[in-house]
Amino acid sequence: MLIPVGYVVATAVGLGWNELAPLVFRPRVGELLTNTVLLLVIGVPATIALGVGGAWLVERTDLPARRFFSVLLVAPLAIPAFVSSYGWASAIPSINGLWGGVLVSTLAYFPLVYLPALATIRGLDPALEESARSLGLGPWAVFARVILPQLRLAILGGGLIVAMHLLAEYGAFAFIRFDTFTTAIVVAYQSTFAGPSAASLGVVLAALCLVLLVVEAGARGRARYARVGAGSPHPPVLARLGRARPVAVAALVALGIASTVVPLTNVVRWLGAADASALTELPAAITQTVLLASGGALGAILVALPVAWLAARHPGRVSRALEAPYYLASSLPAIIVALALVTVTLQFVPAIYQTVVTVMAAYVVIFLPRALVPLRAGIAQVPESLEEAARSLGSSPLITRLRVTAPLIMPAMAAGAALVALGAANELTATLLLAPTGTRTLATQFWSAASAIDYPGAAPSAVLLVLLSIPAVALMFSHARGGRIR
Amino acid sequence: MILSVSGVSKTFGRTPVLDDISLEVPQGSRTAIVGASGSGKSTLLRLIAGFERPDTGRILLGDRALAAPGSSVPAHRRGIGYVAQDGALFPHLTVADNIAFGLPRGRSRAGRVREVMQLAALDPALADRLPHQLSGGQQQRVALARALAPRPGVILLDEPFSALDTGLREQTRRAVIDALERTGTTAVLVTHDQEEALSFGDAIGVMVDGRLAQAGDPAAVFDAPSSAQIAAFLGPALLLPARAHDGVAECALGAVAVRHDLSDGATSVVAMVRPAQVRVDVEAADPSAIVHAVRSIGAMAEVSLLAGGSDPVVVDLAVPLHGLGALRPGSRVALRIEGGAVLYPAEGLQAGDLAPHAVKAG
Question: pTM for the full model?
């Protein structure tokens, strides 16, 4: 797990300041840094505004068709950002540069803020809002002074995830010729292999990532929000939008069209233009995708189980110290993980260089939190008293885990595995760099066709990628709405 | 087989939780351990069950050492049943599968499940239900049936009724005591509810701050609590500063006969009287108290009295509504104490432990 972190440190140290400095302090890096920072500074607040505003509208106002809009707002998650970018680029070929990047990525990623905001607002005790109303606050004041402060953790967490995605995204930006660190690293890698140029860019990217993590942790502080007192909450009284109602509906419809309808109609349009030859390679791509993704999912679950167990059952400094590097490694963009694995396998175990094993290892590193989070929650939900009851009935600790704990955490394991598998199926950067020559997953298949401007040829894989993502998105959505998997 | 705990101590981190506990539970008897939360009573149960190991001391079942310095039988080999506070039913198994969990595979399984379900007064129609489809009382009876099924030598009950509503609690408690009685199972119950502990069975142990402060027959313990704190913990008690001489205690309620003198010859003592011992005499010629307030609570009325001359104390009594008669605020009455008082040394008592003085109320 620590290979990527170690790689970054080793590169920085190995190159040494004298060699690193000229590589880092050159106009090209300044340009990339400006691009990337501007993308973050504009993109993250935009996703927060869209995500939080949307969650509040569908959850706490008298918006019509709230259920429909609540699903519409999460739908973009099912469209991989590079597919969405392909949809936009083929609709408006002139789209490019910073504003193109901001447009495409904001529309693709705002649900990452919307989901936690939705979950938090649903969990808020309506009595808080009612108390505020009874103290003389209007609906807008209630939103600003009661709801918004409670959303701090959701906004910070969601914003961080969006920022990490913006740093890591390759496909979506490469399409519209917007250069960030990640796209530049891929280009550098393809021309000079894992040379010092790619490596030094990687160091800067990793440093950016670390800065974001520290900023988020600092802003989050020790904040904890909980419902005080018992008693079952009752349904909230909805804020009246009044004359703003048509405006809100129009805004949400426009957002839905831009984020979902435009990309999807273009994908479908190209699908109509696709000829039979585009379909012949699909079966092989599907098989390889399924094999690689399920291998990655299995690996991630196996790695996550002991860590999740420790974190849920023996929380403390040791388990936190164990967990932290996992999250750190997984926060690094896929391109860094890929570079690290290329370097390490070539240097120490050339036998597994460009094999399935390396690809799966990359998936485990990149997507581990997707397995860790549901597993930890699942294990924490199994009361220890159940295991004690089983032991007092004569089951040994091992048998107890098999007969009691395992069946109970099965849904969490399945959810975690599904999320990892679907992430892996959509993964582009690490797969491009690490997969054995000739490997064709749906994502790389799509990419090779689309980047060669063979839009019809890319459409079938794009449709499959979207279809594949729907279950995972449905799962995340039902989690956010507080639905149980069981 | 006697369950015997001797000299057991347990510390979590630096916090001592149990301090030198010794306890004997004879075969077929029922013992209740009562204590405030944090008194260590649940930890004692978990040590007996084998979920935790004692730091020092031994736990024996018959002549088999369950826990001794350097050795400990794991929970699943102890043959001790355990009923947790929330029942801890396996949510993925039906009632029948829950109950059969600890039974060896074999033909007699289904029969035994039916048998213990009947024993725990469970409707056989519930066998195929899942735990979340049961009421709280039914869940607890399933938990009991599950613990009884493998015929354990001892069964441990950790506050099994505390999560239930008042009415259901009483009913479930009866069903549980009944099932334990009919199977002759040795049982240890832990609770913070004094009435539950006093009515559970053959013996009661009172835990205070990790020590077993008093143990014995429930009636005897209630009659002569070994300290004023235990007396107050076991039920409503009036603790009145008193002067003792010649088998009589002079206090705000007048001269009261002494039932037990546990003051150890201390100069300043307190007299402990249960409100239920106080009779209100309305037509007495020598009134010693004045009614301050009357509040009706259903069939009873809570009567607040100021008793004693220069330094009056507040005495709250529950009087049946029909016995209230002409009592109203301002009535002058005499108070008669039936059954005498128990004397304790006054040292170590906080002002808040004593019956409140009515400095301003008068």
Answer: 0.75
